[in-house]
Amino acid sequence: MPVVRGCELPDDLFYDVPNNLWYRPESDGTYTVGMTTIATGMAGALVAFTAKKAGKVIKEGKSVATVESGKWVGPAKIGFDAEIIAVNDDLSAAPKMANDDTYGQGWMVRVKPVDEAAAKALLVPGTAVAAPYEDKMNADNFAGCAA
Questions:
Q1: Is 25 left (phi over 0), alpha (psi -120 to 50) or beta?
Q2: pLDDT tens profile 38-97
Q3: Which CATH class name applies to 3-122?
Q4: What are the E-state strand segments in the chain?
């Protein structure tokens, strides 16, 4: 598993580095989506999570959810056109779950890409994500998850 500046990035996932999201492909052609440890590390302890409704088609670069911490409020932007298939209501009830178990119970939404090829072209496999994240963390002036 790649670890960049103390931030774990499981190599069985795919990543949208610019938007700090991870994607797990499911057997039905959908993806489970969540915030990376880098995103939760930058945001701090989450206090609110509000997802768009299931059934809604979200355009590339638009928000699938709004995330709020004590020091940040902002959108979780998706990198490709997709329909929201499911929302993690447990995360809405307990937003800190994204900090405690971001790659497990802290997932945000499940989406179905409008164009599977566009989704695959954007996503970086976990086995190749360390260098792009090192560059992004430099650009964002983020010391890391252990800092």
A1: beta
A2: 999 999 999 999 999 999 999 999 999 999 998 889 999 999 999 999 999 999 999 999
A3: mainly beta
A4: 3-4, 7-8, 14-16, 21-25, 31-35, 46-51, 57-58, 63-69, 73-77, 82-87, 109-113, 124-125
Q: Are strands 82-87 and 109-113 parallel, antiparallel or unpaired?
A: antiparallel
Burial tier of 48 (Cβ tally within 10 Å: 0-12, 13-18, 19+): exposed
Tokens, residue 88: 């993690």
CA angle 24, 118, 73 (to 5 degrees): 60
Half-sphere exposure of 91 (CA within 13 A, CB side): 29
Per the structure block, which two tokens stand in for 47?
A: 């206090």
> Which pTM value belongs to this model?
0.95
Evaluate if residue 146 carries a pLDDT over 80: no
Domain ranges in the chain are 3-122
Q: Is residue 40 a contact partner of residue 98, using CB atoms and an 8 Å limit?
A: yes
The structure tokens 């990376």 sit at 36
